[in-house]
Input
Amino acid sequence: MRRPNVLLTGTPGVGKTTLGKELASRTGMTYVNVGDMAKDGELYEGFDEEYDCPILDEDRVIDELEDKMIEGGVIVDYHGCDFFPERWFHIVFVLRTENSFLYDRLESRGYKGKKLQDNIQCEIFQTLYEEALLSYRKEIVHQLHSNTPEDLERNLDQIMQWIEQWMKDNN
Output
């Protein structure tokens, strides 16, 4: 039985990982956190001193994921989306969070200074939503509010309904 590939993207701190893990648990799909995969496989090409974080080797990430993506049924969680092949995803969800919630979440993760401010600005200017619209067909890109536990449940329900419909239509 074919299953869709889903991309969860958005600024760090918007709830991609929480949503992705719960979605995988409820659907039996495979969950991939690209940041964790990169860390485990050391899929880096350097270190960014300004942001105090490793620089992702995008080509190696794509090589690592290719076989899983062909099989289908994968939920991919990453804050960027423009380097993934368009053919991989059947739907893209961009999570959005109000700045007051996001600021507190990022601060609790130890973000500060330029890294904190740039991520808040990224959310204000809808940078990742725009990136998704430029990278994928508009009709498969959707924004979801991700501020509260109620939003999480609503998003889970909506995505699960979409997955069920996709499976009916494609099997």
Remarks:
- The chain has a mean pLDDT of 97.
- DSSP finds seven helices and seven strands in the chain.
- The helical segments are 16-27, 34-41, 58-71, 99-108, 113-124, 127-135, 149-170.
